[in-house]
Amino acid sequence: MDKTLCYSFQKTQLKYMEAQGICFGMNGNLAAIHNSFENVFINQEAETIFTESAVDDYWIGANDLFSPPTWTWLNESPFDFSDWEKGEPQNISMSNCGAVILQNGRWKSDDCYKEKPFVCLVKPDANPVMSTTSTSGPTTTLTPTTTTTKKPKPKSCPVSWQYYNTTGYCYIVLGGEFWQDAEQRCVISGGHLVSIHSLEEDLYVTHLVSGAPAHGLYGVWIGLYTEDSNRNWKWTDGTPFDYHNWRADYPVNTGLQSFGDLITGDPNGKTADWINVHNYVWKNTFICKASPK
């Protein structure tokens, strides 16, 4: 085990990317595990620290969010060790984040939007505010006291809309319309077709529509469009095109005009990735995004 690294066991139950945000704030990442000794050590500590949390598992840094079905670590270290439970990881949609089963220390894939405790791997020179607990292993376990400043929840979103604290926006799933008609319905409702600016927001939107009707493979409309054969992509709400999650070989050239579609229904595809299509092909479920009032 690398003695220059420390583990922080966090009892607070968070979604995968929220947990990663806490770890990143401590100059670390969700834990990467590179041998059986580290795996056993982490789970022994977790069994003690998480015993009062009434949970069955906890997040680590394993995921296949970026290049499924290839699993990687969030800290970009080599994925040179694994200890999957029998039948894991599951190659199904919305099962892209890795967790460790408390009972036996083996790994499972799970929905990134489930809330679990988690383990961070941080450098000791990160200097977080902390209380230090010595362990029987060669590594010191750090339990940082972190303060997360969140945007205050607004007094209200429009009726039936969902507020997402991370972005400070409201969202609703509707359907089905052609792309232009979907955008018009969003505008009438006080917003636009959803713009997406981070992986976390991408996963949130995908999770939001997971229980809504979808049209086979082709997911839901988002506010992405081009009018110049893919040279410039824009969001209908005018926000910057500063994030994308195209499926392999996309965007394709469909002519001058093309529209973004968020994949939600393909069990073999990358979670929350995008394709582009002609508007006239089908009516579709769609997501609106608006500022809270």
UniProtKB/TrEMBL annotation:
Q: Which PROSITE patterns does the record match to this protein? A: C_TYPE_LECTIN_1, C_TYPE_LECTIN_2
Write one Pfam family the protein is assigned to: Lectin_C
In residue numbers, the region (Disordered) covers: 131-151
Supply the InterPro entries for this chain.
C-type_lectin-like (IPR001304), C-type_lectin-like/link_sf (IPR016186), C-type_lectin/snaclec_domain (IPR050111), C-type_lectin_CS (IPR018378), CTDL_fold (IPR016187)
Record keywords, A-Z: Disulfide bond
Residue ranges annotated as compositionally biased, kind Low complexity, are 131-149
Q: What is this protein called?
A: C-type lectin domain-containing protein
Q: Which organism is it from?
A: Panagrolaimus davidi
Upper lineage is: Eukaryota, Metazoa, Ecdysozoa, Nematoda, Chromadorea
